[in-house]
Amino acid sequence: MINKEKIIDNQRRIQELKEKLEEKTKENKSLRKTINYYRYHYLTGMKQRHDFEYDLREKLEKSEEPFYLVMLDVNNLHGINRTKGYAEGDRLLIEVANDIKMICKECGEGYHIGGDEFYVITDDDTADITKFSIDNCEFGAVNSIDFIHSNEMLDAVDKIVIEKKTALNRRSSDETRERK
User: Fold this and answer.
1) What is the Cβ-side half-sphere exposure of residue 164, based on CA atoms within 13 angstroms?
2) What is the pTM of this model?
3) Which residues share a beta bridge with 141?
4) Where are the alpha helices (DSSP H) in the chain?
């Protein structure tokens, strides 16, 4: 015969373990919420810099197929925030993020790096990159076939966007001078 005291003791231990498991499950849910809070941009709901850098390195190192890295930069966000208010700037960021998410459903993953910068890693190198021509943004794209390191890709796409923004600013200044 099994000792009645042992049975009661085992039942008590089982109950204690169930309670500890329930407590750890609650802690785990809380940690997951915290991780997601920092993983996704609070305004746009897009993955942020850490995931972007990790995903880009992984894709470049492990992908057998070429892909595109696209950078989008919102035009004059600082000016919009200054003249129309931060709510209008936030609305613009959300609009751009939603456009990127819609495009990325078919071809890759979008990231909001911060401020006015967005990146997209496409799944294939035959993607029509002109679809990233979003209102109020300048964009540039580079193909992974030309690069070994993610930093090289980032520098190259950044250079393209800077050149486009410089040309846009130059045209804007010329137009302002012509009106005077």
Assistant:
1) 18
2) 0.71
3) 70
4) 4-39, 49-62, 77-84, 86-107, 150-179
